[in-house]
Amino acid sequence: MRLLALVVLFAGSGFAQVEIRASRPNTMPEMRSRLVRGRYEVTNATAVDLIRTAWGVDADKVVGGPDWLDLDRFDVLAPSTEALPVLLRRILAERFQLAARTEMKGAPAYAISVGRKLQVEKADGSGRTGCELNPGGDSVELVCRNMTMAAFASAVQGVREASGYLFGYPVVDRTGLTGEWNFKVEWSPRVAMRASPAAANAVTIFDAFEKQLGLKLELIQLPTQVVGVESVKKPTLNPAEAAGTPLQFEVADIKPGDGSLRCGYIDIQRGGRVRIDMTLRGLVLEAWGAQIPPDRILGDARALDGPCFEIVAKAPVDEDSSGGANTAGWKGPVWNGVDVDSMRTMLRALLVERFGLQAHTEDRLLAGYELVATKPKLRRAEAGNRAGCREGPGPDGKDPRLSNPMAPRLVTCRNMTVARFAAELNGMFPGAPRLVDGTGLAGRYDMTINFSPASLMTAEPNGAISLAEALNGQLGLKLQARKVTTPVLVVDRVDAGPRGN
């Protein structure tokens, strides 16, 4: 599969030469890494991606440094003469002139500890080892056998039905209990981004632990390693890679949908077999990576919204270090060994070839919103933090999601201009009318906002908080309807049906 851009480390004594080229635009801006025939390929990576991989930490544990660490993207191709983290540290030091320090800082986590009366049973080793989740109507039951408390803590943090309580925080064992145990615990599920169970019948996971197991599940600050960027420079870039042969499916067949697949279906199976059933509008939307909402694809509506077409195609499959197909499953931007962005490029080429598609992007004035300042409640940015947003509480550590599960979004942005904050909000609400900054506020700010996704909003009060309400009440900013400049995709020409296979 063709690389988007390269950082090439040549073999030889020492660190002889490194070439760096910026990545091309990608519909799935996530890092890819693989080991192929004795060389590492790390593609579409930000400098933060390279740092977190080099030190083995999460991205939000990389602190400090300029904005471009999150924005500029690079690819790495290097002989596998040493472990990837070691190699990346050398590249970062030599070519990015990175100076970094590691230190321990507190981060949110949940700790399991012993309560007043322990109610778990010592295991005798019989039966299977592990935890099994039994879903019910208004509750779920987690049954565990022959489990150490450390293994139980790890299992709980991965249970989807606990996500609305734990919010992705790690869970650690602080019980001091040794050996293996049998127990079961039942609670009312609260799934992040979904409505809470009825308050009258709800048993929270915290109450369930304490009353059924005699254990406490409490939010703590866990000492966690962070990597602090003290200084860094952009690497010298080589000229852009010369354009190669456009990516295309190896074979592709298009026919009218027969109803066996739902319209809007897409699947990538092992071996690179791609199956799609969509209208032309859906196919165009997928080919452009869903970056432009359906209502911003302008053109012949009769053709775009006509019948569904079924596409069966074969895409090239990534290889692993042995030259065989990558393992099955969804691996972020790679689905059963197929790079999704590359598949979209192939789909776009197929639409051009078989449907005569001609399209271009432009800006138009469409209905949207302007963010204006009423009584701003913005904190001036704390020096030293790199600009960016993440899910989770602000510096005060308070998490309002625990008391109001109907507002499960808690976004903290640091060292942000209001214009970039507005852009971040657009990314959180794909397909919604575009939002632009009209506050006139200069400088950078730290902001935390707690709100509900549109799926939880109802006509009757239910505890959900709209984005407009959150902006006004929490930040002193108001959404004002007006026409704003918005990118659209104009389909200049497209055939209503495909040309011959």
Which structural traits does this protein have?
4 domains; 501 residues; disordered N terminus; globular
What report would you give on this structure?
The chain is α+β, with helices and mostly antiparallel strands. It folds into 4 domains: 92 residues, no CATH class; 119 residues, no CATH class; 107 residues, no CATH class; 101 residues, no CATH class. It contains 11 helices and 28 strands. It has a 4-stranded mixed sheet with strand order 5-13-7-11. A 4-stranded antiparallel sheet has the order 8-12-10-9. A hairpin with an 8-residue loop joins strand 1 and strand 2. Helix 1 packs across helix 3 and helix 7 packs across helix 9. The chain is globular, with a radius of gyration of 26 Å. The two termini are 24 Å apart.
Brief characterization of the structure:
By secondary structure, the protein is an alpha+beta fold. The chain has helices spanning 47-55, 68-71, 84-95, 149-156, 163-166, 205-213, 280-287, 301-304, 340-355, 418-428, 467-475, and strands at residues 7-9, 18-20, 32-36, 39-46, 62-63, 73-79, 99-114, 121-122, 130-135, 140-147, 171-173, 181-187, 215-231, 251-256, 265-269, 273-278, 297-298, 309-314, 330-331, 334-335, 338-339, 358-373, 379-380, 388-391, 409-416, 435-437, 445-451, 477-493.
